[in-house]
Amino acid sequence: MLPELTTGAGALVLTAIAAYLLGSVPFGLVLARLMGLGNLREIGSGNIGATNVLRTGNKAAAAMTLVLDAGKGAVAVVIAGRMLGGDAAQVAGLFAFLGHLFPVWIGFRGGKGVATFLGILLVLHFPAGLATCLTWLAVALIMRFSSLAALVAAASAPAWLFFLGLPSAEALAIALALIVWARHHENIARLLAGRETKIGRKG
Fold first, then answer.
1. What's the average pLDDT block by block, 10 residues per block, for the chain (203 residues)?
2. Which of 3, 32, 69, 158 has the most crowded CB, counting CB atoms within 10 A?
3. Range of 107's domain?
4. Number of domains present in the structure of the chain
């Protein structure tokens, strides 16, 4: 299902632009440089997200990246929702997510969006967001692959939204999940070949 459109087109466009710019902030790169951890582009997968920051060996930096990447999605959704309504909140979530994936500040080469996706879900519908986070955690603890945990959690999100009470956000969750899967195509190939890097291994 789709959310009911109650916000004017102009306001939705401005919401999308602001959310995109916020989502584009590459916190992983910024923290790595500020904390003297090196250039993330030359470490591990070269990704700017928390999993790759963890490969520097600095757990605090990885945790901060996770929180900030999730937080920018959450903040965009909360502000848009309170100022304009539920339809604007979902637009903000989508464009904050796209900003993380294609950040204007670093040549449109961003991350895979998992933390931002989770932050968006947590504020759109906390029970479904929490269930998705717990799905990620369970798979990560059992299998020790961040990518596999992300894939399973993303796929589970639309179902959690349906069963826990926000079907109007299912279309957004499906779209974000499909993008997450597409962004993980190399990880999927490595998982199938038995060559994927496990959580905590330094790059």
1. 82 97 95 89 84 87 95 98 95 97 93 96 96 97 94 97 92 96 95 86 53
2. 69
3. 9-193
4. 1
